[in-house]
Specification:
3 domains, alpha/beta, nine-stranded mixed β-sheet, single chain, Rossmann fold
Length: about 400
């Protein structure tokens, strides 16, 4: 592909990503993979160059742009070489017309910038939400040794505060490494690793991972428990939960019990656990504002109404979790969000609804106090953004 053809391809992909963000469709990575699966003529350098253009544009633009062309024009405003691609010969974007408007650069839509500021994030902290993320891995204590994995992965360095955490440069690929296939390590952001340790899971406990998804934190909890005890990994998404079983086999985890829940009827499926769990992790559906480093187009998907619905779901799941915990047990409220509505305010609202419950600071190596919990952020801790609160039953 010529450079101008790559620019046109990026515009076409951005059009698809913008439409998917508007309609809650497939993620950008999925759309990019589909695009090139249908265009076998594009080589690896072409795919890499187009992908880089697409994500440069996404990171630049806070609000969802009108079109892929408007997005690329915004990127070209400070890139003379990119501007020359417009109107060039061959499969190139049409020439830039006089007065043609480009999209506007920014961190996020205006309403969301206000929410971020109200949640205590200054401009530097907001901008850091869009930095490129490194690749973090968790060495699986059930299968691997940190020293051995360090020796086998060039460029890996230990992560401060995480005995089993290692960091590699952005865009590193480890899934084809023998150690990954053997279960010696899992890809997991440092923030997720800190949160999993902050749960305080120990051997012999009965733990419920209420929103387990594909099981990333389930596997981390199992390692912390030395594979002794019981973890009920539940979720309403059959596809995501179905990925846990093969991951558990690879990781050598035998104490995880997947349990598919019926949306809206979760309590019935968990009735046998009422009042019996030592620990319930509620890694609830959230806005994902803390994961923009990896999914920057998520800013284009979020609306005030969607945020309000997510807050309602989180509250309902926390109330369900409270019924599952034994006296003196703990509910861990976790969101990969930096917004107070989903974090500190949500924890305060739970305590107001549940008499006798109290908050206890999670035992974590990093995190800034926010309300009754801790908040992690890219700017302050070089992790994805998280809020975590430890809520203790009477």
């Amino acid at each position: 592909m010529t450079p101008q053809a790559r620019t046109q391809a990026a515009i076409e992909l951005l059009d698809a990503i913008i439409a998917a963000a508007r309609d809650q469709g497939a993620a950008a990575d999925t759309l990019i993979a589909r695009y090139f699966a249908e265009r076998r003529y594009a080589g690896s350098k072409d795919r890499r160059a187009v992908r880089e253009l697409v994500y440069r544009a996404i990171r630049l633009l806070g609000a969802r742009p009108a079109s892929g062309r408007a997005a690329m024009l915004a990127l070209a405003a400070d890139d003379a070489e990119l501007r020359r691609h417009f109107g060039a010969e061959g499969h190139a974007p049409a020439a830039i017309e006089a007065g043609e408007e480009a999209a506007v650069a920014g961190v996020a839509p205006a309403w969301l910038v206000k929410r971020l500021a109200a949640s205590g994030l200054d401009k530097a902290a907001q901008t850091a939400l869009l930095d490129r993320a490194p690749l973090d891995i968790r060495v699986n204590a059930l299968r691997g040794k940190v020293a051995a994995v360090l020796a086998e992965l060039p460029g890996a360095v230990p992560i401060e505060g995480l005995a089993h955490g290692l960091r590699l440069p952005p865009d590193s690929r480890v899934e084809d490494h023998p150690g990954w296939a053997q279960g010696a390590f899992e890809v997991q952001d440092a923030g997720s690793q800190h949160v999993a340790l902050g749960c305080g899971a120990a051997p012999g406990m009965t733990v419920v991972d209420l929103c387990a998804g594909a099981g990333g934190k389930t596997l981390a909890l199992a390692a912390a428990m030395a594979n002794a005890g019981r973890i009920i990994a539940s979720d309403t998404d059959r596809g995501r939960l179905g990925r846990l079983a093969p991951r558990a086999v690879r990781a050598g985890v035998t104490i995880a019990e997947p349990r598919l829940l019926d949306p809206g009827r979760e309590a019935a499926a968990l009735d046998d656990l009422t009042g019996g769990a030592d620990l319930v992790l509620v890694d609830a559906p959230c806005s994902g504002t803390g994961t923009w480093r990896r999914n920057p187009e998520a800013r284009w998907r979020l609306t005030p109404d969607r945020l309000a619905r997510l807050v309602e779901v989180q509250a309902r799941l926390l109330d369900l979790a409270a019924t599952l915990v034994r006296p003196g047990g703990a509910v861990i409220h976790v969101v990969c969000s930096v917004l107070d509505a989903e974090g500190a305010d949500q924890a305060d609202a739970f305590l107001a609804r549940h008499e006798g419950w109290r908050a206890e600071r999670p035992d974590m190596a990093v995190g800034d106090a926010r309300g009754t919990g801790l908040r992690l952020s890219p700017n302050a801790h070089s992790t994805d953004g998280f809020f975590v609160a430890r809520l203790i039953a009477p």
